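We include the entry.

. . .
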Amino acid sequence: YDNTDIYVSLHTDGVTGYCTGAGCPTGTKTFYDASSAHAPWGAISQTLATDINNGIIAAVTANADPTWGCDLSWGCVPNGNGNYGEIRIPHRAATLTELAFHDTCDRDADANHLRDNYFRSTCMWGMYKGICDYFGVVPTWAFYSDEIVNSDISTNMLPGATATVHITFRNRGV
């Protein structure tokens, strides 16, 4: 309705209820839809989903958890085949990212992942990077980046002198 270029949906996944141990599902996947209802946008939705999922996985493995990966039960970028209104209805490239499993209590939902602000911020930066890749642009802000908003550092200081200064930074990255 708002003439946006893309539609991006973000969820957590749940399959088995409270789950611990090696048999529990884990990881990230990003759906696209290539069903007949969304066919005109299926190919570009798949490209967007691939870029987003790759961005998330790359950001997490490089910065938060080197063992993170795709949800192997579905694959990294599965076709939703008309099953999800979030990606079937929009008349544009549309994706549904299932970031991690909220019911895998000793892995995805633990304090090192979905409950951890750094992990979540890392995922969101990866999603941002993936969207930038989709549009063929370089992200405005790096993973770790900031900007000096203002400062009152004197341009003339003597060696060994002490001065009180104020510097304001704005965090732009994770």
